[in-house]
């Protein structure tokens, strides 16, 4: 049996957490490939090491003195090394990092040093081999991730070692330039390693006992999902369920490797299994609720719009020309509404509006900002009549005004648009009607 075990920042924030991780790894011989993140928050008001590194980089780039922040980063690692009684010095590494910051080695290099150093600590603590991810996670000369090259490099390197630590979050280009995945990207590294070694299970260790029906920062103590499919998870991760990075699913999905979300602080809990498919009936009609704030809508009205073939393409071409991706495009006979991320759209707002007028000569265009999108996801919804009705009656009872409704063609999810200020109320109302009433 071969397992890949990824430990997020919350599981590696201090020496005490490291000891829990060590116990978990030593308790099962199959836990042979370890993917650590950088030390996370020791308490809610704390700062993740990765965020300290970004701040350090910003100061270095501004030509300001960054020694205070670098000292704070050093103290975080020395606290862990001391707490574990490790005979390990990172002085040489920190000297190199300080020199590289001064030489403006790049933002992604800077951000990756948290995982790099924590990988060194983890390897020393476990007595495992340390593999620098820049040598096995490959990005091409344009800075795009190269899945095939990575798979070959990982498989070749890992067949030579029984046990290893592979730091999460980053990789490298052929010329040694360090690149990172997007935030939360250590999940992706774990998935890539699991694929390369054909692992039996990819265990993703965090600070909650599995994938919860919704964000515990919105609903207190939400129910744990026992089994979820990759398709359901992808919808929820994409819509903000941050417990797993949205791109961590593809590598293991190809190999049919299950992911097991576990709690470092409660290792006895079974957690959640993420699988390709299951005949297990879901405990609740819905599997999960996730969402994000910070969207805006551009509503276009034109009489007889539906008779103009290519109208939609022309409008979306305007967004493409401005490099703006869109989230949803609900439309009616004379209307078309495009939902986009507000921060991506705001700076190009006027160019887009002018472009739309030139492209399709609308009767009028109006915009609305400060909107949130919520995804209600569940493989059980397909066979359960009246789900959408229950969602909207729950929102009506909670006095939430629904701005948009979109159902994915797969009937796997319902997307609802509400105002930002109603986001938490809406999530709670949906959770209550589908979960609390069935508990
Ligand atoms: N649906 C969800 N299920 C579980 N956790 C969720 C969900 N949505 C948001 N979260 C949040 O994600 C956090 C775990 O992700 P993260 O903070 O990245 O942990 P780690 O440092 O272990 O990677 C949880 O503590 C929880 O607050
Ligand atoms: N440390 C990186 C990568 C990561 O995945 O972290 P975590 O596992 O703590 O979410 C970040 O903060 O984005």
TrEMBL record:
Pathway of action: Amino-acid biosynthesis; L-methionine biosynthesis via de novo pathway; L-homoserine from L-aspartate: step 1/3; Amino-acid biosynthesis; L-threonine biosynthesis; L-threonine from L-aspartate: step 1/5; Amino-acid biosynthesis; L-lysine biosynthesis via DAP pathway; (S)-tetrahydrodipicolinate from L-aspartate: step 1/4
This enzyme's EC code(s): 2.7.2.4
Molecular function terms, GO-annotated: aspartate kinase activity; ATP binding
Top-level enzyme category: transferase
Gene3D superfamilies in alphabetical order: Acetylglutamate kinase-like, VC0802-like
CDD domains listed in its UniProt record: ACT_AKiii-YclM-BS_1, ACT_AKiii-YclM-BS_2
Highest taxon, organism lineage: Bacteria
Chain ranges of the ACT domain: 376-439
Keyword flag Amino-acid biosynthesis: yes
Reactions it catalyzes: L-aspartate + ATP = 4-phospho-L-aspartate + ADP
Gene Ontology biological-process entries: diaminopimelate biosynthetic process; homoserine biosynthetic process; lysine biosynthetic process via diaminopimelate; threonine biosynthetic process
Binding site for substrate: 50, 115
GO cellular component: cytosol
Entry keyword Cytoplasm: no
InterPro entries: AceGlu_kinase-like_sf (IPR036393), ACT-like_dom_sf (IPR045865), ACT_Aspartokinase (IPR054352), ACT_dom (IPR002912), Asp/Glu/Uridylate_kinase (IPR001048), Asp_kin_monofn (IPR005260), Asp_kinase (IPR001341), Aspartate_kinase_CS (IPR018042)
Binding site for ATP: 6-9, 206-207, 217
This protein's UniProt keywords: Amino-acid biosynthesis, ATP-binding, Diaminopimelate biosynthesis, Kinase, Lysine biosynthesis, Nucleotide-binding, Transferase
Family designation: Belongs to the aspartokinase family.
Annotated function: Catalyzes the phosphorylation of the beta-carboxyl group of aspartic acid with ATP to yield 4-phospho-L-aspartate, which is involved in the branched biosynthetic pathway leading to the biosynthesis of amino acids threonine, isoleucine and methionine.
Name of this protein: Aspartokinase
Organism expressing this protein natively: Blautia obeum
Gene (UniProt): yclM
């Amino acid at each position: 049996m071969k397992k890949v075990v990824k430990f997020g920042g919350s599981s590696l924030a201090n020496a005490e957490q490291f000891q829990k991780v060590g116990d978990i790894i030593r308790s099962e011989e199959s836990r042979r490939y370890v993917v650590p993140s950088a030390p996370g928050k020791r308490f809610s008001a704390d700062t993740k090491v990765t965020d300290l590194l970004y701040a350090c980089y910003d100061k270095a780039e501004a030509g300001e003195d960054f020694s205070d922040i670098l000292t704070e980063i050093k103290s975080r690692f020395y606290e862990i090394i001391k707490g574990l009684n490790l005979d390990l010095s990172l002085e040489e590494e920190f000297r190199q990092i300080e020199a590289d910051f001064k030489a403006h080695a790049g933002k992604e290099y800077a951000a990756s040093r948290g995982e790099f150093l924590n990988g060194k600590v983890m390897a020393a603590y476990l007595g495992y081999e340390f593999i620098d991810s820049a040598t096995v996670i490959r990005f091409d000369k344009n800075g795009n991730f190269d899945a095939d090259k990575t798979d070959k490099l990982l498989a070749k390197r890992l067949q030579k070692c029984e046990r290893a630590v592979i730091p999460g979050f980053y990789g490298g280009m052929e010329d040694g330039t360090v690149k990172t995945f997007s935030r939360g990207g250590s999940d992706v590294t774990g998935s890539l390693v699991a694929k390369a070694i054909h692992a039996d299970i990819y265990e993703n260790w965090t600070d909650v006992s599995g994938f919860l029906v919704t964000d515990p920062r919105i609903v207190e103590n939400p129910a744990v999902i026992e089994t979820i499919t990759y398709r359901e998870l992808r919808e929820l991760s994409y819509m903000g369920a941050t417990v797993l990075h949205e791109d961590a699913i593809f590598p293991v999905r190809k190999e049919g490797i299950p992911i097991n979300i576990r709690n470092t602080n409660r290792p006895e809990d079974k957690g959640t299994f993420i699988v390709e498919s299951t005949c297990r009936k879901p405990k609740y009609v819905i599997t999960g609720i996730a969402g994000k704030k910070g969207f805006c809508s551009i509503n276009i009205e034109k009489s007889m719009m539906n008779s103009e073939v290519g109208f939609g393409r022309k409008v979306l071409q305007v967004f493409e020309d401005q490099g703006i991706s869109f989230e949803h495009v609900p439309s009616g006979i004379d209307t078309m509404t495009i939902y986009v991320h507000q921060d991506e759209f705001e700076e190009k707002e006027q160019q887009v509006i002018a472009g739309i007028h030139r492209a399709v000569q609308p009767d009028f265009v109006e915009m609305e900002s400060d909107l949130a999108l919520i995804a209600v996801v569940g493989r059980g919804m397909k066979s359960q009549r009246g789900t959408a009705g229950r969602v909207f009656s729950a929102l009506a009872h909670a006095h939430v005004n629904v701005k948009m409704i979109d159902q994915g063609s797969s009937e796997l999810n319902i997307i609802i648009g509400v105002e930002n200020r109603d986001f938490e109320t809406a999530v709670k109302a949906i959770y209550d009607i589908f979960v609390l009433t069935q508990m």
